[in-house]
């Protein structure tokens, strides 16, 4: 298999950095829009609202920028990245500590832009410089990063993480097995689901693996055994995966995992996804609530918990979940 050239890789990373990513080889960080709003005291993200994470002290990053899917609704610059799973798996990956050290520094450099801005409270900015919440969700699938268990352990032990969120496409069951066996699980594991049957999965996620559906189902069954908070996030794309039939099929997938929470979130007409979808594919919060109540008809163990208009999202909760909504690390926490 021909290796991806250094030049090509440099080109990809340069293109990402033009999009306000800051990369350390194949890992990368970006300041989330909501972190900026929180520092300006103009609001917080729905994850702070629902789960208590400190949005201004969020390090949104990826240990490995590549992904084994090319989802039509993805706002990331998929068109700039590699779409050959063999090439992706051959790429060199960096060491966990090097990645964290470098990305924390790069995040500080990006936040320095706020310095001297009279509208910014210096104390808030000072606090924001040191991350306590780690969102491993920027681009790519973190479960393609071979040393993810070591990285999670490091974030907990050395960087005193109050919360670690990992968002995955459910295509790497062996990596999940390693996380479960080592016990180095994130605080909250997000299972990103956008399709409820094999045909739709092919159309919406454009997976690189040929055995994508087998991997998907195997992953969902295994996730049930993961001893951490689990969230299924369903991205609702209007006129594509928002039918009653989808709600029924989704309920079947949910039962394989038995998660603590379900997030039904509208597709957002943002970034590179505007090259692939239309603004008409976004849902109103009312449409998201309709789909959620349809889903609840097939899921008696779940109930409506909360919503966020700005992010067009509804939160459903498993009545049998052992977890509080607010993450333990943020009980009696000073923001
Ligand atoms: S948790 Fe997610 S939405 Fe909230 S600030 Fe971090 S990256 Fe942004």
Report on the structure:
The chain is an alpha/beta fold and 335 residues long. The chain has one domain: Aldolase class I (TIM Barrel, Alpha-Beta Barrel). It is 36% helix and 16% strand. It is built from 12 helices and 10 strands. The chain has helices spanning 6-18, 33-39, 46-51, 85-90, 96-111, 122-128, 148-157, 173-182, 198-205, 212-223, 244-257, 285-296; strands at residues 22-24, 27-29, 58-62, 133-136, 163-168, 188-193, 229-236, 261-266, 302-308, 313-318. It has a 10-stranded mixed beta sheet, sandwiched between helices. Helix 8 packs parallel to helix 10 (212-223) and helix 11 packs across helix 12. The radius of gyration is 19 Å and the shape is globular. The mean pLDDT is 95. The structure holds iron/sulfur cluster (SF4). Iron/sulfur cluster (SF4) is lined by residues 32, 34-35, 45, 47, 53, 55, 58, 60, 135.
């Amino acid at each position: 298999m021909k290796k991806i050239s250094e030049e090509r890789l440099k080109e990809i990373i340069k293109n990402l950095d033009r999009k306000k990513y800051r990369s350390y080889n194949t890992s990368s960080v970006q300041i989330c829009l909501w972190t900026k709003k929180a520092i300006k005291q103009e609001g917080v993200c729905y994850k702070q609202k629902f789960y208590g994470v400190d949005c201004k002290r969020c390090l949104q990053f990826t240990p490995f920028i590549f992904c084994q899917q090319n989802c039509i609704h993805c706002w990331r610059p998929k068109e700039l990245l590699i779409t050959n799973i063999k090439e992706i798996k051959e790429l060199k990956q960096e060491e966990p500590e090097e990645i964290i050290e470098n990305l924390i520094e790069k995040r500080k450099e990006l936040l320095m832009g706020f310095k001297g801005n009279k509208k910014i409270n210096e104390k808030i900015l000072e606090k924001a410089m040191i991350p306590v919440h780690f969102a491993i969700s920027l681009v790519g699938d973190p479960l393609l990063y071979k040393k993810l268990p070591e990285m999670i352990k490091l974030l907990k032990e050395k960087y005193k993480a109050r919360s670690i969120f990992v968002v995955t496409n459910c295509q790497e069951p062996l990596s999940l097995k390693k996380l479960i066996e080592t016990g180095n699980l994130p605080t909250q594991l997000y299972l990103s689901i956008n399709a409820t049957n094999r045909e739709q999965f092919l159309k919406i996620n454009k997976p690189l693996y040929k055995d994508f559906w087998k991997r998907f189902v195997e992953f969902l069954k295994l996730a049930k055994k993961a001893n951490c908070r689990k969230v299924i996030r369903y991205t609702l794309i209007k006129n594509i995966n928002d039918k009653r039939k989808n709600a029924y099929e989704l309920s079947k997938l949910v039962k394989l995992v038995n998660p603590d929470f379900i997030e039904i979130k509208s597709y957002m007409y943002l970034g590179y996804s505007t090259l692939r979808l239309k603004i008409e594919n976004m849902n109103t919060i009312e449409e998201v609530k309709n789909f959620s109540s349809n889903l609840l008809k097939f899921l008696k163990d779940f109930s409506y918990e909360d919503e966020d208009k700005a992010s067009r999202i509804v939160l459903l909760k498993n009545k049998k979940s052992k977890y509080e909504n607010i993450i333990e690390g943020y009980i009696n926490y000073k923001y």
